[in-house]
Prior knowledge:
2 domains, mainly alpha
Amino acid sequence: MAPDPNIRCSDADREAVAQQLRDHYAAGRLTLDEFDERTTTTYAAKTFGDLDGLLTDLPALAVEPAAPKPSVEPVRASASDRVENFRAFVAPASAWIAVSMVCTLLWAAGDNKGGFWPIWVIGPWGVMMVLRWLHGGNTHDRRAMIERRMAEDEARRQAIRDNRRGS
């Protein structure tokens, strides 16, 4: 049932008509001048009667079914995953600390006339460590963790399905 032509239309109603006009223009059914004229009329419309004649000479658009959205549950890190992430960060951090200490000791044992040269080793490496920490660790480790969790979840779902069939 079409709305009463004397009823005022909303912004959403005008936008729906404008979107249909865009689709028809993209399909080549309207020239640029026709599209511009009809779009201007659409946005100036106050009632449904003002919108009535804008689409009458155009075919109905095929409505594509929306693709079903996969139901994705967020991956929550388990305690073992958190331990793995911590270990993945501790090893490089320990190496950075050790190299920083060795460089600083070598600098302290030297003549120190050239300035604090270990900063050129400690600084960039430290920045990369911080960026890696902010980014969330090694993406390879994270990908492996997610794949393992997905396999565990699938095994759990399969067990539930098997239990239901057996009941």
